[in-house]
Design a protein that fits this description.
The complex is a heterodimer of chains A (about 160) and B (about 375). Chain A has about 160 residues and is mainly beta. Chain A contains no helices and eleven strands. Chain A has a seven-stranded mixed beta sheet with strand order 1-2-11-10-7-8-9, with no helix packed on it. With about 375 residues, chain B is an alpha/beta fold. In chain B, the strands form two sheets. In chain B, strands 3-2-4-7-1-8-12-11-9-10 form a ten-stranded mixed beta sheet, sandwiched between helices. A two-stranded antiparallel sheet of chain B has the order 5-6. In chain B, α4 crosses α13. Chain B is globular. Classes of the chains: A mainly beta (about 160), B alpha/beta (about 375). The interface between A and B is medium-sized, with 37 and 28 residues.
């Protein structure tokens, strides 16, 4: 399945619950990156904060803090709002895998919570300075009908 | 930082250079590639293999144990040989290790080689580190740099055509370099065709092929003992390696790391950016040359694009930037690339670069960044 704005799933139809996966009827909806996303409405991004130096980072790290060397046990989950401002944008015309289908648009997004991430922005009208918000997009459906979702962004209304 | 400067206490000179042309992957073995460059460097230095006391091979893609099977074909002298892997900067790091070995006094004459053959994918270790990221798989290097281009163009009001003029210059330089993988003068229209990602088109992305580059470095004792031609020797005034630190969110790591490494190198050499006559930078993607010219202090932030346009960075301009054709035209076979930069700058500082000669060049710089991120800068001086 191609990734597009049309493939976006209304997150509101899902029950809020544990991050990583939620059960919807008999189907499991699983995040492609379960350690990085909370499948809430709206979706949230998971980073970490070091209790030693207070540094907030994304992605969350299983090994230790780059700021002060604290062990991973001192890194606390830090929930980031999936909202931010586009700092840079590029339309990708060549890709080494069939998915996502080209062309697709990737942006550097400065999250309102501080960290800067890169993600696909679905739809049109994105440029430097555009405000964007996270949206869960169906990625693939496996043999037993379970759905894998991933985070993309879209231009805020 | 440790202020001990081994290169000052015991100077190190580049005394021999050699290349195997960078080219598309072929049936030529890496042994053949490496031996061609090594023999050429020995002959250029006017020495024989038994004069060489140690060898470092910069390679990222060959797999373990590449040096001895190759270099023993010059004679199995039993000298210490070590492979050096530092991603795109592997060849630069082989030179850095060779310089350190000579400066430390352990050896008088050391070979630094870079050799590689591309395989499917680069097999970069950071992708196997077990650190998940949202963009994994969708943001490959050309998109990473296309995003930096987007930010740069927006911040400084620079157009895609202006960025493309980096490639226009480097393809022109590469056209007169017999060792370059791409040896064709291109028009701006050709360069702007075939979009890959954002502003980056096919001809604004480097080719990754195969090849080899070799450098012989020696101490003053070595030069005297072997009666080498001191007038063709080029002194290594600085050799600095740094890795990525922690920068503010959103700061471009490649340029920030380059600025730190360049600054440390100028400090080590007692030189200023304005002293540089000729330099080779990691222009794997056209936008990088603008970022690094600014990060190295050659000009102010946002100024590089207009200086490229006005010919200031041409051969014959105020400072020749990527006279070999750079990674964009000479090519980026990974292991050889950083070693090959030393070859080109040495040729320039000797005044032996033919039609690509930057007249009167006395001070040169080489710069590579690599996945990790690492950065290696060398400053070379003809005296």
């Amino acid at each position: 399945m191609t990734l597009s704005a049309a493939g976006a799933i209304a997150a509101a139809t899902w029950p809020a619950g544990d991050y990583g996966s939620v059960v919807k009827g008999t189907m499991t909806v699983q995040a492609r990156h379960p350690r990085l996303l909370r499948l809430t409405d709206p979706p949230s991004i998971l980073g970490h904060q070091c209790i030693g130096c207070r540094r907030v980072a994304f992605p969350p790290d299983p090994y230790g803090c780059e700021g002060c060397g604290s062990l991973s046990g001192d890194l606390e989950e830090f929930v980031l709002e999936a909202r931010g401002t586009v700092r840079a944008v590029a339309t990708v015309h060549r890709h080494h895998q069939p998915s996502p289908a080209t062309p697709f648009t990737v942006a550097v997004i400065e999250l309102t919570g501080g960290p800067v991430i890169k993600a696909i922005v679905a739809g049109t009208g994105v440029g430097v300075g555009t405000e964007v918000e996270g949206v869960l997009v169906q990625d693939v459906e496996d043999d037993v009908g379970d759905i894998l979702v991933d985070l993309q962004f879209r231009v805020m209304a | 930082m440790n202020e001990t400067n081994l290169l000052k206490d015991r100077p190190v000179y580049v005394v021999g250079i050699g290349l195997h042309r960078y080219q598309r992957r072929s049936d030529t073995t890496y042994v053949e590639l490496g031996l061609t460059a090594a023999r050429s460097a020995l002959s250029d230095a006017g020495i024989t293999w038994p004069d060489v006391e140690a060898a470092y091979t910069g390679t990222a893609l060959l797999g373990m144990g590449s040096s001895r099977i190759m270099l023993s074909r010059l004679g199995a002298t039993g000298i210490p040989m070590t492979q050096v892997e530092n991603a795109s900067a592997s060849g630069s790091s082989s030179v850095a290790q060779a310089c350190l070995e000579v400066a430390s006094g352990r050896s008088d004459v050391v070979l630094a080689l870079g050799v590689d053959k591309p395989r499917g994918g680069l097999g970069a270790a950071p992708s196997q580190a077990g650190i998940e990221n949202l963009e994994s798989g969708t943001v490959v290097p050309f998109t990473h740099f296309a995003l930096l281009a987007s930010e740069y163009m927006h911040l400084h009001g620079v157009s895609a055509e202006q960025v493309a003029k980096v490639a226009l210059k480097n393809h022109r330089n590469g056209a007169s370099n017999q060792y370059a993988q791409r040896q064709k003068v291109r028009t701006l229209d050709e360069i702007l065709a075939e979009p890959i990602s954002g502003a980056m088109t096919r001809l604004q992305c480097c080719p990754v092929g195969e090849g080899a580059a070799a450098v012989v470095v020696a101490s003053e004792d070595g030069i005297r003992r072997l009666h080498l031609d001191q007038s063709r020797a080029v002194r290594v005034a600085a050799s600095v390696t740094r890795t990525e630190g922690l920068y503010d969110a959103g700061v471009g790591i490649d340029a920030a790391l380059t600025a730190e490494t360049g600054s440390a190198a100028f400090h080590q050499a007692g030189l200023e950016p304005s002293d540089v006559d000729v330099l080779e930078v990691h222009d794997a993607f056209a936008i990088e040359e603008l970022l690094y010219a600014e990060a190295l202090g050659l000009c102010s932030p946002g100024e590089a694009a207009s200086l490229i346009e006005s010919g200031e960075f041409d051969i014959g301009g105020r400072c020749a930037l990527s006279p070999s054709g750079g990674l964009l035209a000479m090519g980026h076979p990974i292991g050889p690339t950083g070693t090959g930069q030393i070859v080109e700058v040495t040729r320039q500082l000797r005044g032996e670069a033919g039609s690509r000669q930057q007249r009167g060049a006395q001070i040169g710089l080489t710069h590579m960044v690599g996945i990790g991120a690492v950065c290696v800068v060398h400053l070379l001086v003809s005296e």
